[in-house]
Specification:
Structural class: alpha+beta
Shape: globular
CATH architecture of the largest domain: Orthogonal Bundle
Strand order of the largest sheet: 1-2-5-4-3
Largest sheet: 5 strands, mixed
Order of helices and strands: EEHEEEEHEEEEHHHHHEEHHHHHHEEEHH
Number of helices: 15
Distance between the termini: 32 Å
Number of domains: 3
CATH class of the largest domain: Mainly Alpha
Strand content: 15-25%
């Protein structure tokens, strides 16, 4: 839908992506959500904020996709207490459920008539009547231990058993709790509980300088450091009305595609390994290592941390390294095609992948699946194509899609995206414009706002930023696509056998840290 169809005025924010912002009342809040959903749009993020120290109100924010860009709505809530309420949108956008619960845990704004009021991030780290993101709460505040009596949903019936898995796992992975209700080996229901990686990142952003915030943003979810760093830089540049140099934008995109390649290669290896093909893990790990080592040579960090900064980039690509990258891209593409051929022709592997962990396109659309998982369930949506910023507006990006929505489809999409990203990387190296690497960023004006929106390797990474006094950060909200996709994993596993869960889980490979803010 178009911006003028909403029925209220919006302000266009400066920046690389089309973003409109408006302050709304409760009726407009619900009306906008309903209109966006009826036109095929999606919820991108929902979060709370506190403006009471400025004589204003608590707030809840919502970012939605429209045909013409990202719509950012702000709803003031004039009751600054634990009963502060706003209209529930989870009935319109199911992924909002956990976001609304997190907003209450952190800020104390509650969705009215919501179906689920259980805590999400709080666990026992702080009591139910404390809200860490209130401005009256210092980052140094030590809370007394709260109660952790989380009421899991109970499934009963003849032969039904529960299998609790985690939050501590046998492998070296992040903690999350998965509670399976099963009959024999068949999964009837899966309930997730996350929040174990909560480390107060949103509170930590408060009062940091712009440069300090950039370093923290790149560490929200370490496997997506480039996507988060670019989204943060984009939000800061929007707030400052600064346009980074063209060469910096091309280098950012090159870093982003290399991040996509490295992560997809790692996942392809583990998908093969979880299906009993250890060869895939050995070969994909070797190829991923080559990508990371070249990143180290280029940026000084295997995962390119701190390479993207507000205003541009921190390091250039020298001609000799560019030539090495061209050669590596060609060699890597040839090896990836060989491995894909082995995947395609391996009967035992295909038997494990095809039909396993299926998310049909209709369910994916209804529940707001996004990113590569959505593209494997028929959604031809990719910010690099829908809303291309520099340099994607000058490149022909092919969107890899599939309709089966199973582990096999998510595997195929990964292979195709690796090959597409390698072609994009070669095109970027060949067509890289000359010029400056960085624009000088002036102190942000107190109260200025901006949003960054980037197609990371999992899906859309978004960061909303509000500046505070004397160039500090007042509120930064990072949003990972895993918020939308974790609930779909609960559906994908239904009807499958328990031993297939690791394979299904790895085919999504969602972030714990990215949602446990």
């Amino acid at each position: 839908m178009r911006i003028e169809d909403f029925g209220f005025e919006m302000e266009a924010l400066p920046g690389a992506m089309p973003v409109w912002h408006a302050e709304v009342d409760p009726a407009q809040w619900i009306s906008a959500a309903q209109q966006v959903r009826s036109h095929g749009g999606r919820l991108v993020a929902l979060w709370g904020a506190d403006q009471t120290d400025r004589g204003r109100a608590l707030e809840v924010h919502m970012a939605l996709t429209a045909r013409t860009g990202l719509v950012w709505l702000t709803l003031p809530i004039n009751a600054p207490d634990a009963g502060a309420e706003f209209p529930d949108v989870a009935a319109i956008f199911p992924p909002a459920d956990r976001m609304q619960r997190a907003a209450f845990d952190l800020v104390g704004v509650r969705a009215t008539s919501a179906a689920d009021y259980r805590q999400w991030l709080r666990h026992a780290a702080w009591p139910a009547n404390a809200f860490p993101l209130r401005k009256s709460v210092s980052a140094r505040t030590m809370f007394g231990k709260g109660r952790d009596d989380y009421p899991f949903v109970s499934v009963t019936g003849d032969g039904v058993h529960e299998i609790p898995v985690g939050p501590v796992h046998a492998g070296i992975i992040e903690p999350g709790h998965f509670r399976f209700s099963v009959v024999g080996e068949r999964v009837l229901r899966l309930e997730e509980r996350l929040g174990y990686k909560h480390k107060g990142i949103e509170k930590r952003f408060e009062a940091l300088s712009l440069a300090e915030g950039a370093r923290l943003a790149g560490r929200v979810s370490g496997d997506s450091t480039v996507a988060y760093a670019w989204a943060y830089a984009m939000a800061a540049e929007s707030a400052a009305s600064v346009t980074p140099p063209a060469r910096a934008c091309w280098l950012r995109a090159l870093l982003l595609e290399r991040e996509r390649i490295a992560n997809h290669l790692g996942d392809l290896g583990y998908i093969g390994n979880d299906a009993g093909v250890a060869f895939a893990l050995a070969q994909c790990s070797r190829l991923k290592e080559d990508v990371l080592r070249l990143n180290q040579s280029w940026t000084g960090h295997r995962y390119a941390m701190d390479a993207i900064v507000p205003g541009g980039v921190a390091c250039d690509l020298e001609p000799q390294l560019a030539q090495t990258m061209r050669e590596n891209n060609s060699a890597l593409a040839a090896e990836v095609r060989q491995i894909k051929g082995i995947f395609d022709d391996h009967p035992g592997l295909q038997d494990r992948l095809i039909g396993t962990g299926r998310v049909l396109p209709e369910l994916a659309d209804r529940l707001g699946l996004c990113g590569l998982a959505a593209r494997a369930s028929g959604a031809a949506w990719d910010l690099r194509v829908q809303f291309p910023c520099t340099p994607y507006d000058q490149l022909d990006v092919h969107v890899a899609t599939h309709r089966n929505g199973d582990v096999a489809a998510r595997t195929i999409v990964r292979f195709e995206e690796v090959l597409e990203s390698l072609e994009l990387c070669s095109a970027m190296v060949d067509r890289m414009p000359a010029g400056e690497l960085r624009m000088e960023m002036q102190m942000l004006r107190d109260g200025s706002v901006g949003i960054g929106w980037v197609e990371g390797w999992r899906g859309e990474v978004m960061i909303a930023l509000e500046a505070g006094p004397e160039g500090t950060l007042r509120r930064v909200h990072p949003h990972d696509p895993s918020w939308q996709n974790w609930p779909l994993l609960e559906h994908a596993v239904i009807g499958n056998i328990v031993p297939d869960f690791p394979l299904i889980n790895k085919s999504f490979n969602l972030s714990y840290s990215g949602v446990d803010l």
